[in-house]
């Protein structure tokens, strides 16, 4: 299974090479898209992800994780081609609609391949390196953008298309990780499902999968708390950061250099196991959540470049160390062979949270950037509260 892990690292590296990343918001604004329209598109995309998560999870457990990931990699390439040629709200929306199909398909499948390919006890380390490879690709792309591309947005889009094309080719070399027993069970389930008819049977299957994925419901608290932290990081470090930099008077060259620094920090996920071994589970949750709150506090009351940069980098570090930890804890709470289906249900919950937070972030940012960061403080504090309740329930089981 080392081959799978190596190939997944390669795919992560290549798909991390988003050459327009340092100016993702400015790229869209250059084509007449406002910050609210950006978050609206993001919200629509996440809503579609929710609707597609369950069908994709079931499909992945039926057709295999490898085949699912290969299909998604090629669709990912198509979405980047559309983005490269997009010049209006309609085309940027179309790109995100296709991307929703891809994200829903990827959701749980990449984690399942890595988790089932890793040696016992190594999964958190593998998740950390996987996230680090994505950041390594982003770092390489950021350096190329800063030195060679700069304001040539179209060229940045073309380079991204080439990188994602290479990732799609690489995915074809993966080996299936679902065992014969799992496949037998899936085949039997498929046979049974063919005998069931009507909406009642579909609803019954959905209820069964959701029940298995959420168990006694305590994991729901964990998922909501994780989603609040993740979406604060996503919105602030991908969309709002560039607006904050412009507010502080920073230019494109400086933004590119800061983006490189943030990308380097994003490669530190492999240190997550070492940090959480020292802090423990509860300490790790408080540490990462507390850092997110602190970064939003800094950004809400800062109008200076240095403090704004520090706040963004602090948030990136918190998320980088938290992500492998969160994936490990999430996978620990899954029972049963259909791991991709369970993770898809989890993603549906987290995406549901993200739809709401994205729209609120967008509305507040249109009014005043500071209000968006204050909202970030609030939902990160809520995340800490939910983690605390979840931890007490989880430890009592």
Topology:
Elements (H helix, E strand, L loop, with lengths): L1 H14 L8 H7 L4 H29 L1 H21 L3 H18 L2 H9 L5 H27 L3 H19 L8 H16 L2 H17 L3 H30 L4 H14 L6 H29 L4 H28 L6 H29 L1 H28 L1
Helix pairs in contact: 1-6, 1-7, 1-8, 3-4, 3-5, 3-15, 4-5, 4-6, 4-8, 7-12, 7-14, 10-15, 11-14, 11-15, 11-16, 12-14, 13-14, 13-16, 15-16
Radius of gyration: 20 Å
The CATH architecture name reads Up-down Bundle
Report the top-level CATH class. Answer: Mainly Alpha
Number of domains: 1
- Beta-strand proportion: under 5%
Please, what is the CATH homologous superfamily? MFS general substrate transporter like domains
- The total of beta strands comes to 0
Structural class: mainly alpha
Based on Cα principal axes, name the global outline: globular
CATH topology: Growth Hormone, Chain: A
**Helix content class:** over 70%
Count of separate DSSP helical elements: 16
Mean pLDDT: 86
Unreliable parts:
180-198
Q: Span between N and C termini?
A: 33 Å
Report the biggest beta sheet as strand number plus sense, adding barrel if it closes: none
Instruction: Write the H/E string, N to C.
Output: HHHHHHHHHHHHHHHH
Q: What tags apply to this protein structure?
A:
397 residues; Growth Hormone, Chain: A; globular; mainly alpha; 16 helices; 0% strand
